[in-house]
């Protein structure tokens, strides 16, 4: 009995040892996985990702120059065929890069990396002018007269878009090159940017008829682009005119992007008034970038009868509405060409022009957004959408 009991005890002990060993192994693997996961910077996804293209954001206080230099000289980074593309520095502490799976893992393992985000697609917010006559009167019917309270002289509006046709007669020599993602001159090969620039500051079609218009080309000839190029355009704008009397007009958008939103917020903190289109999906604007960034002025679109345009995004992230359906403005095919199109893209430059008028009036960059909203006409937008403010642009 004693031997049997002892034997039973020994068997039980071996079984227990096996159980404990298996459990310890499981816990060790789990712990190692957790440690490995914790050691990697977070990877943020994009709805429409660009294969192999990423935005790398460093931790606060980390040297961007040192980080880029170290990576470029790293044999491991080179062996993984990693490539650094655009280096930012003004609006986000980071860079864009082309990375395969190994290079991505290597970059995410670096101690100075805050997060990595998949690069994604952005598009022009198109689906030009009764709009001018509407924004300087409180209520319908339209009088088809526009008497602006200023001209925007001395203010620069950076049109972050498809470029500008500089020689168009409506610009009177006030349009100039700024930045081109493709390394070109910033000339428009799509029309969208020229149209928006015309609404901002064209002699015939513009809200602020004497502003300086600067081309910041971040979208291609098809009207699409990438998060990384949009950030580069915002980065240029912050360096080029931050602290001066400057507006950024961004009639574009994509899926939610922390990097794009952070870039816009940092540009605003540097004194740039940023105006963005709400988007054309008849959806809440909060789901998109840069429309959902709270420091920007986000603009929804209306028709000539004051109804919200059927395509316009809406919701709590929209700050106000402006004319956006059937807007006539300058076009890119000739020096005298015009076109009539619709979109929140067309609403955005109305507000960008109004922002330029306020800066000329002496309103500080930090107060432009609150002034535009406080001076807006209340309660005239029909069916503004769930949680939308019923505010309509008014220029006085």
TrEMBL record:
Gene Ontology biological process terms in this record: proteolysis
InterPro entries: PCSK9_ProteinaseK-like, Peptidase_S8/S53_dom, Peptidase_S8/S53_dom_sf, Peptidase_S8_Asp-AS, Peptidase_S8_His-AS, Peptidase_S8_Ser-AS, Peptidase_S8_subtilisin-like, Peptidase_S8_subtilisin-rel
Catalytic center residues: 161, 192, 345
GO CC, any one term: extracellular space
Coiled coil: none
Entries under Gene3D superfamilies matching the protein: Peptidase S8 propeptide/proteinase inhibitor I9, Peptidase S8/S53 domain
Domain Peptidase S8/S53: 152-379
Record family assignment: Belongs to the peptidase S8 family.
Name of the protein this chain belongs to: Uncharacterized protein
Organism expressing this protein natively: Holothuria leucospilota
């Amino acid at each position: 009995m004693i031997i049997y009991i002892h034997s039973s005890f020994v068997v039980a002990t071996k079984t227990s040892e096996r159980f404990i060993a298996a459990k310890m192994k499981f816990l060790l693997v789990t712990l190692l996985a957790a440690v490995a996961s914790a050691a990697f910077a977070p990877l943020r996804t994009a709805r429409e990702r660009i294969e192999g293209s990423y935005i790398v954001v460093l931790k606060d206080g980390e040297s961007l120059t040192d980080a880029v230099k170290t990576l470029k000289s790293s044999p491991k980074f080179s062996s993984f065929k990693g490539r650094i593309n655009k280096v930012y520095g003004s609006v986000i502490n980071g860079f864009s890069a082309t990375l395969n799976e190994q290079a991505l893992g290597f970059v995410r393992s670096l101690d100075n990396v805050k997060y990595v985000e998949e690069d994604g697609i952005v598009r022009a917010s198109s689906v030009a002018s009764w709009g001018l006559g509407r924004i300087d009167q409180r209520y319908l019917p339209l009088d088809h007269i526009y008497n602006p309270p200023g001209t925007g002289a001395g203010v620069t509006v950076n049109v972050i878009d498809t470029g500008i046709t500089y020689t168009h007669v409506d610009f009177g020599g006030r349009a100039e090159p700024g930045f081109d993602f493709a390394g070109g001159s910033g000339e428009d090969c799509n029309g969208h940017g020229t149209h928006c620039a015309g609404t901002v500051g064209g002699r015939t079609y513009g809200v602020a008829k004497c502003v300086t218009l600067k081309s910041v080309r971040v979208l291609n000839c098809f009207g699409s682009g990438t998060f990384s190029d949009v950030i580069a355009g915002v980065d240029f704008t912050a360096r080029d005119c931050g602290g001066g009397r400057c507006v950024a007009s961004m009639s574009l958008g994509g899926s939610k992007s922390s990097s794009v939103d952070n870039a816009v917020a940092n540009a605003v903190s540097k004194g740039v008034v940023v105006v963005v289109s709400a988007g054309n999906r008849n959806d809440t604007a909060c789901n998109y970038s840069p429309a959902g960034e709270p420091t920007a002025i986000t603009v929804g679109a209306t028709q000539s009868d004051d109804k919200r345009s059927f395509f316009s995004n809406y919701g709590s992230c929209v700050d106000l509405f402006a004319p956006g359906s059937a807007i006539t403005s300058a076009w890119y095919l000739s020096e005298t060409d015009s076109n009539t199109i619709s979109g929140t893209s067309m609403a955005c430059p109305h507000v960008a022009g109004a922002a330029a008028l306020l800066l000329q009036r002496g309103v500080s960059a930090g107060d432009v957004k609150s002034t535009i909203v406080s001076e807006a006409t209340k309660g005239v937008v029909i069916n503004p959408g769930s949680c939308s403010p019923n505010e309509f642009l008014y220029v006085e």
